[in-house]
Write a structure and sequence with these properties.
Elements (H helix, E strand, L loop, with lengths): L2 E5 L3 H13 L3 E5 L2 H10 L4 E5 L7 H10 L5 E6 L4 H9 L4 E4 L4 H31 L9 H13 L6 E4 L6 H10 L8 E5 L5 H9 E2 L11 E2 L1 H4 L4 E5 L6 H13 L1 E2 L8 E2 L3 E6 L3 H6 L5 H7 L2 E4 L10 H16 L5 E2 L1 H9 L5 H15 L4 E2 L25 H19 L4 H8 L3 H10 L8
Parallel strand pairs: 1-2, 1-3, 3-4, 4-5, 6-13, 6-14, 7-10, 10-13, 15-16
Antiparallel strand pairs: 8-9, 11-12
Helix pairs in contact: 2-3, 13-15, 16-17, 17-18
Length: 454
C-alpha cells in the first residue's frame, strides 16, 4: 500500500484530500506545517508528499529544499494557489515531480499521485538495472603511473578475500570506485553492493537506515522496513564517510561486525547477516580517536586491509589518459563528436594542482565537452583554470565568433543541459524553460538534435 503525506495549513483541504486518497486505498497522513512535514518524513517512509507552497513558518519551497538536503526518497507534488505558477515552476527546478493548482480537482489530484507513484517505480527499476549493469560490466581504474600500479596490486590482493577494507584518501580521489571494483572482483560479485553515505543521513535517521525498523517503533513507522545491512546480505556494504557516524551508531555497527547479528530499531528479533564491510574516509582516524570522535575498537575492526587512494597531484602522468577517458564517456553521454586534447592543453592540465582530484577533472572535461565547439581542446580553452588551484577571476573567452553565433551556441548548450537535467522529458523541459513544447521541438531540430523517441 502506497503511503502519502498531505501538507497544508487549511484543515478543510487536508480533510478532503486525505478522504479521497484513503477511498482510493492509500495510507494517508496529514500535517499543517513544513516543520511537521520534516518531522514526519524523518520518521516514516512516504512514497508521495503533497506539499502546499504557502505555509506558516517554514514555507513550501524551503521545506522542499530541506527534504532534498536530507535525501528524503519521496515524490513531491506541489500544491499551488492561483497566481503562484512561477513558484511552482521553481519547485519543479528544485526537484518536485509536478504541481496542482487550487481550487483542487480531487480527480486530478488522484491522477497526479498515481503518476508520481509510477515515476517512483520507474526510478527504482532503473536503479536496479544500473546496479545489474555495474555488476556485469566492471569499472576500471584509469592510469599507468607507479601510484596506480601499486593501487591496482593492493586491490587485486584484497578483492578475492572476505577481509574488511578501509579505503583512505582525499575527497574526489575515487574511493567509491575502488570499493565497487573490490566488490566486482570478489566472490560476492553476484550479490548486492549497497552504498551508505554516512555524512548525508541525519543522526536521528541513520540507525533506522542501517538496521531497519519494525512497525510502531516510532511515530510514523507504519510498516516494517529492512535496513541496509539486511539489503546487503550475501553481498557487500560500503560505508562511505565512516568518520561522520555518531559514537552511538558506531557501537551498533561494531556489534554487527563482531557477531554478524543485528536487530531492527524497536524490534527484538535477532537477524543474522552475511555481509562484507568496506569503509572509506577522508579524515585521519587516529586523530579522530584521540579527539574522542571515533571508537578505537571499531577502527581496528575496519582496518584489516588499509588501502590508500593517491591524490591526482601525485599521479600527474595519468592526467592526459584520464582526460581522454572522460572525454569519450561524456561525448557519448551528450551526443557530441569526440574531441582531442592538444599537447599544450594536456601539459596545462598536468600543471594544475587539482585540489578536487579526479572528480574535479571530470567536471572540467564535462564543461569543455559542452562549451567548446571545436574538435580540439586547446590551452586557451583552459584559461579558466587558476595557477594556484583557484579559478581565474576573469575567464579568457576572447572574441572568436560573431555575437549572433555565440548567442546561438549558448542557447543550444543551455537547452541541451536543461533537457539532460530533466531526463530527456520534453514536457518538463519546456515548462522549466518557459516555452511551448512545439517551439522546443523546432529549436532542437534547428540545432540538428533529434529528441528521444523521435
Amino acid at each position: 500500500m502506497a503511503s502519502i503525506l498531505v501538507v497544508d495549513d487549511e484543515p478543510g483541504v487536508r480533510s478532503s484530500i486525505s478522504g479521497v486518497l484513503k477511498d482510493e486505498g492509500f495510507d494517508v497522513d496529514a500535517v499543517g506545517s513544513g516543520e511537521e512535514c520534516l518531522e514526519q518524513a524523518n520518521s516514516a517512509a512516504y512514497d508521495v508528499i503533497l506539499l502546499d507552497i504557502w505555509l506558516p513558518g517554514l514555507d513550501g519551497l524551503t521545506t522542499l529544499q530541506r527534504l532534498r538536503e536530507r535525501q528524503i526518497d519521496a515524490q513531491v507534488v506541489i500544491i499551488s494557489g492561483h497566481g503562484n505558477i512561477e513558484s511552482a515552476v521553481r519547485a519543479i527546478k528544485m526537484g518536485a515531480y509536478d504541481f496542482i493548482e487550487k481550487p483542487l480537482s480531487l480527480e486530478k489530484t488522484v491522477l497526479v499521485v498515481r503518476n508520481a507513484l509510477r515515476q517512483r517505480d520507474l526510478e527504482a527499476e532503473n536503479r536496479v538495472l544500473r546496479a545489474k549493469v555495474d555488476r556485469q560490466q566492471p569499472q576500471t581504474m584509469v592510469g599507468e603511473s607507479p601510484a596506480m600500479a601499486y593501487l591496482r596490486g593492493q586491490v587485486a590482493l584484497a578483492a578475492p578475500t572476505n577481509g574488511r577494507v578501509l579505503i583512505l584518501g582525499e575527497n574526489g580521489t575515487g574511493k567509491e570506485l575502488v570499493a565497487r571494483i573490490i566488490h566486482q572482483s570478489s566472490r560476492r560479485k553476484s550479490g548486492p553492493f549497497i552504498e551508505v553515505n554516512c555524512a548525508a543521513i541525519p543522526e536521528e535517521l541513520i540507525e533506522s537506515e542501517l538496521f531497519g525498523h519494525v512497525r510502531g517503533a516510532f511515530t510514523g513507522a507504519v510498516a516494517d522496513k529492512p535496513g541496509r545491512f539486511e539489503q546487503a546480505n550475501t553481498g557487500t556494504i560500503f560505508l562511505d564517510e565512516i568518520a561522520d557516524m555518531s559514537l552511538k551508531t558506531q557501537a551498533k555497527v561494531l556489534r554487527v561486525l563482531q557477531e554478524q547479528i543485528m536487530e531492527r530499531v524497536g524490534g527484538t528479533q535477532r537477524i543474522k547477516v552475511d555481509v562484507r564491510v568496506l569503509a572509506a574516509t577522508n579524515k585521519d582516524l587516529t586523530a579522530e580517536i584521540r579527539a574522542g570522535r571515533f571508537r578505537e575498537d571499531l577502527y581496528f575492526r575496519l582496518n584489516v586491509i588499509p588501502i590508500f587512494v593517491p591524490p591526482l597531484r601525485d599521479r600527474q602522468q595519468d592526467i592526459p589518459m584520464l582526460a581522454e577517458h572522460f572525454m569519450a564517456l561524456l561525448a557519448a553521454e551528450y551526443g557530441r563528436r569526440p574531441k582531442r586534447l592538444a599537447p599544450e592543453a594536456a601539459a596545462r592540465l598536468q600543471q594544475y594542482p587539482w585540489p578536487g582530484n579526479v572528480r574535479e577533472l571530470r567536471n572540467v572535461i564535462e564543461r569543455l565537452i559542452i562549451m567548446v565547439q571545436d574538435d580540439t581542446i586547446t590551452a586557451q580553452d583552459l584559461g579558466f583554470l587558476g595557477r594556484d588551484g583557484a579559478p581565474e577571476p576573469t575567464p579568457d573567452v576572447g572574441p572568436r565568433v560573431p555575437l549572433s553565433e555565440a548567442r546561438d551556441r549558448f542557447e543550444r548548450d543551455y537547452i541541451l543541459q536543461t533537457l539532460n537535467a530533466q531526463g530527456g522529458n520534453m514536457s518538463r523541459t519546456a515548462e522549466v524553460l518557459g516555452v511551448e513544447r512545439s517551439n522546443l521541438y523546432k529549436k532542437l531540430r534547428a540545432f540538428g538534435v533529434t529528441p528521444r523517441g523521435q
